[in-house]
Amino acid sequence: DLKPPPVLVGGEPLDKVRHVAKAMGFEKAVHLMDYLARHPEMDPFGTDKRKGPQDPKDWETFAGVLVVADPGDQFWPALQLVTDVLLSPNPQAAELAPEQVPIYFSNNDLLWKEAFAHSRFGQGAYVATLRLLYEKRLAALGLSEEEIAARTSGRWNIYGKPEVPQQMLAEKRLMITAAAKGDAVPAHFYMVGDNPRSDMQGAFNARGAGRPWDGVLVRTGVYQDGDDTAHASVVVDSVAEAVEWILEHGINEGHIPAEKS
Amino acid sequence: DLKPPPVLVGGEPLDKVRHVAKAMGFEKAVHLMDYLARHPEMDPFGTDKRKGPQDPKDWETFAGVLVVADPGDQFWPALQLVTDVLLSPNPQAAELAPEQVPIYFSNNDLLWKEAFAHSRFGQGAYVATLRLLYEKRLAALGLSEEEIAARTSGRWNIYGKPEVPQQMLAEKRLMITAAAKGDAVPAHFYMVGDNPRSDMQGAFNARGAGRPWDGVLVRTGVYQDGDDTAHASVVVDSVAEAVEWILEHGINEGHIPAEKS
């Protein structure tokens, strides 16, 4: 249980991430920008834009790392400081400890879609680059490939789509909402999304685990015609069309075989 | 020749990097922070700290990318925007072009040493993470491993230590300095440095290419006792000791066999 000991928390925006960590019960959560404000020498590229520590308690030994949102503009200190803590739970005291603390990521999407015409890198880009640099740093410290693999094994935890627990959490929330409103118990679930690798793959993985899910892929974001649909049951132009399609074809009929859009 | 067409330039500090690019003859150099100020939607994590364009000329199609210094705090936009330009010389017009523009890095050191007790990630960390994300992005666009390798082949250029041309440039500068001062022509060269993988490996690579070089490794930075010395001829505690050692053992005697410190 990570809740009593201090944990290092990463993600932007700073205030929201601090709030989420507290709401999750992590009373001794130190945001990496607060940790950096306490030890500015850890980032030689740091500039005056660093925000001072919100919580000046001097917790220095971390029990784990939680990445609750994309590091965004904090990408660089997030790579450097989180690597420091993965090498050693107290980087001020030692460069390399025999064991790595566990790290948890909320999401592994490589890409997402925002205002710009082309997909942008998301938290999955941070997960992949952190892993690469951490492994290169361990190799530079003389660890073998086997030692590196053993060190990270079971201590590198990625949540979020397209993992089955994420889909089951969605089921649970929908069940609770339906019960609260006095609606019928949902018997089938539809994942409406624009990202084949997370949204559609999530529905497909849930189905593989025996859950009643189908994927409805919309052309409004990451997905472009010609891309792999990751087993979407249908491809539509908009969320309105997705709802229409579900009302027409889908409700409570169980799994629908994939069809061409 | 990249000098007439516009090139995208990355690195911190912004003003120095702009100055270096101009001094190198790149009149149409656009710093990536200027490019980002022109197209803020390219970075959804961008905040108000972005600096406005120094040079408002609307060059949009780049002939190449120069990374002249560590991106540091600009690590995140440097990963996103340079990937955009490697995918397409004009990302505003197209997401993916058939060819990649060439990219040049000034340095490939994974680690360097500053005020903090443990080594910090340097430009080599940027080179490695950019390559990883660019390849993942190409794979997400449907390119095969072979297509990705062909696309980057010969267009991914890394300068700096431990490459032999870097050591030969140092020789040339020392020859010019000696001639200007009326000193004797240098017959042997010593690389004094703290980083085995760049400094000592550079001297070793030069020796492998028939150049008269030895490496003198100092314990003042990246190197820690027990690390691989990368063929250093000697390990000493300080730069003063390095000079003493060279005066005592080294001058103009040609290659010195490696000895234990």
Overall description:
2 copies of one chain form a homodimer. By secondary structure, chain A is of the alpha/beta class. The first copy, chain A, has 2 domains: 7-158, HAD superfamily/HAD-like (Rossmann fold); 177-250, HAD superfamily/HAD-like (Rossmann fold), CATH 3.40.50.1000. Helix content of chain A is 38%, strand content 13%. Chain A is built from 8 helices and 10 strands. Chain A has helices spanning 14-23, 32-38, 75-87, 123-140, 145-152, 164-181, 196-208, 239-250; strands at 7-10, 29-31, 64-67, 103-105, 111-112, 120-121, 156-158, 189-193, 213-218, 234-236. In chain A, the strands form 3 sheets. In chain A, strands 2-1-3-4-7 form a 5-stranded parallel sheet, sandwiched between helices. A 3-stranded parallel sheet of chain A has the order 8-9-10, sandwiched between helices. Chain A is elongated and about 65 Å long. The termini of chain A are far apart. At the A-B interface, helix 3, strand 6 and helix 4 of A face helix 3, strand 6 and helix 4 of B. Chains A, B: It comes from Phaeomonas parva. Chains A, B: InterPro entries: CDP-alcohol_PTase-I, HAD-like_sf, HAD_sf. Chains A, B: This is HAD family hydrolase.
What's the structural blueprint in terms of helices and strands?
The structure is a homodimer of 261-residue chains.
Chain A: E1 7-10, H1 14-23, E2 29-31, H2 32-38, E3 64-67, H3 75-87, E4 103-105, E5 111-112, E6 120-121, H4 123-140, H5 145-152, E7 156-158, H6 164-181, E8 189-193, H7 196-208, E9 213-218, E10 234-236, H8 239-250
Helix pairs in contact in A: 3-4, 6-7
